[in-house]
Prior knowledge:
Number of helices: 8
Structural class: alpha+beta
Pathway: Carbohydrate biosynthesis
Bound molecules: 2,5-anhydro-1,6-di-O-phosphono-D-mannitol
Strand order of the largest sheet: 4-3-5-6-7-8-9-10
Low-confidence stretches: 100-110, 112-117, 154-160
Radius of gyration: 20 Å
Family: Belongs to the FBPase class 1 family.
Order of helices and strands: HHEEHEEEEHEEEEEHEHEHEEH
Distance between the termini: 35 Å
Mean pLDDT: 86
Protein name: fructose-bisphosphatase
GO molecular function: fructose 1,6-bisphosphate 1-phosphatase activity; metal ion binding
Amino acid sequence: SKQPVFDEVCETTGVTLTRFMNEVAMLNPELRELTTLFGAIDTACKAMTNVVKRSQLPSSETLGYQGAVNIQGEDQKKLDVITNDILKRALRFTGRLGVDLIGTANSDNQEIVIEEGEKYVAVFDPLDGSSNVDAGIPTGTIIGIYEHSDNCEIDPECIGDECTELEAQCLANTLQPGTNLVAAAYCLYSSSTFMAITLGNGVYMFCLDETIGEFVLSHANVKVPADCNIYSMNEANFDKWDAPLKNVVKGWREGTGKSGERFTSRYIGSMVGDVHRTLLYGGVFGYPGDTKNVNGKLRLLYEGAPMSFIMEQAGGISSTGKERVMEITPEYVHQRIPVVMGSKNAVQEILDAYAAE
Length: 357
Ligand code: AHM
């Protein structure tokens, strides 16, 4: 699809996300509905910032377990449910979504909401890394927005069970490769709350100024450094990784890799935090496949693809080691995918090692 046009306002740090989106809508009238969606995301991320921040207070209603058990039999944390609801309600009220498909990595509940006036479909992980919240470690929200396929004929009158077949049909239409994404965003809840977005024309980062309650542009057109000396993977799995990956990482540790640099390691265990740092400082973030989990841990549809879109829009690479993550069509909602993403030259070193295998 064609790239949106931006102007000086969009490159000026200090403008609010609201103003940024108004400007984008003015310059690109065909994206008006998309910018409205971002108004909803803006509000939802502020609400989620609050909920996450307050979640550990002894008086907090979000502390502990809800008692509900998800489809995979795990206890579902209240925070997952709450953030899921916040995002879902915020997006629904825009009336812009044909289908909103909720994939919570922890809870794996899957809902489909059918509404009139459809144009876009949103996939999201409302609170990625939620197992970290109890320890005050950063978490994030990941969102991908696709255009709704015309083949998905939705009967706005149908409710619940009556829709089953249509739902199945719409679901199939929702499973699109990342190359079809029209927008992606993440929100990082950490020492600052950040929102990074792409509309297919670079990556723009906003930082939440809580005193005025607005996301303010802090980094325009972010580019991930091409070279780096940081890698970010769960090293406890090292022995189970593929040989090409092991060899490259070994070279980085010893300073005998392509760049000759001795790398250091940084791993939060929260994808949004690890990718955010990678974008700003350079590095390679990965959750590779291993002998036990051949496809790693991350979900293609609502983690791998949107984050890969952002990484590529910042000039980085995102791959399974063998193919571009963006080009893979998910076969089912919770499908996992091995991922290595980040600084171009370092990720390329991994791709070369796999190619030479
Ligand atoms: P979650 O859905 O349980 O939150 O898992 C997703 C998270 C990612 O944010 C992170 O990259 C990864 O799991 C860390 O996994 P591990 O603890 O195996 O290193």
